[in-house]
Specification:
Layout (H helix, E strand, L loop, with lengths): L10 H9 L15 H13 L4 E2 L1 H9 L6 H16 L4 E6 L2 E6 L4 E7 L13 E4 L1
Parallel strand pairs: 1-4, 2-5
Antiparallel strand pairs: 2-3, 3-4
């Protein structure tokens, strides 16, 4: 670089400074994980994690004032696992007086309702039911 005018005298100087990676090795301080390691951990947790609730299902739970106990959540998860074991894709899982439509491959609760709110107890677009 020309120190007087602070301009590059050739394209090679620009390439060397801006386009070539530094030869310095970047080390991660001991005890800290790299981005790749953190990503793998998060992905493995999400693959084995509990059921997720869609935005629609969360709104339904809130508007219908449905609060699930820990036991009910565990039974809902068990019901979804049983549905998956039987090859179901869209399943009705009934826990106590609550009904849940679960997208089994995505492990997502699509909607939730109280027994008193389901019209005539008719459920469509499901390929199986699990009663817990």
């Amino acid at each position: 670089m020309n120190q007087i005018s602070k301009k590059f005298s050739s394209i090679e100087q620009i390439t060397d400074q801006y386009l070539k990676p530094n030869s310095q090795n970047v080390t991660i301080p001991e005890g800290e994980l790299s981005f790749g390691e953190i990503l793998k951990q998060k992905q493995s947790v999400s693959e084995n994690s509990a059921l997720k609730f869609s935005k629609h299902a969360s709104m339904r739970l809130q508007s219908r004032k449905i609060e699930l106990s820990t036991d009910q959540k565990e039974r809902l998860e068990t019901g979804a696992e049983k549905a998956e074991a039987k090859g179901m894709k869209e399943s009705l899982v009934i826990v106590d007086s609550y009904s849940f439509i679960v997208n089994v491959p995505n492990k997502t609760v699509v909607t939730a309702m109280d027994q008193t709110e389901s019209d005539e107890n008719v459920y469509t677009n499901i390929d199986g039911a699990v009663i817990m």
